[in-house]
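User: Could you check the structure of this?
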Amino acid sequence: MLYHPAKMPAFSREILRRKISVVVVTYPATPLELSRARLCVSAAHTKDDLDRVVKACEEVREALRLKFSSGMAGGLREPKTSGSMAAGRNGNEAPRWTLTEVIERGTKDAKLTLY
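Assistant: Sure, the predicted structure tokens are below.
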């Protein structure tokens, strides 16, 4: 979700400039606070294709200053081990993964239990 409707055209242009097709939907087609960018994924895409899209979105997010949240409301960076936070976590650190962590983990995180 992109919570800045005024930046949707710029997001679309920047992603398209990187040869990635995107459909942006914003007000009046959606409520003002629910603007979004739609990327179509198919079985023909490889992990490298998806990694390239994630990197491009990160570059555009940085260029357009689209990140508002620290991610504090998200989940843990690592699964809980023996009833405590993962090693090195103090409970106040945002659980947001870096781009490198997302790409390195591949599909492993999808196989972890949530609770």
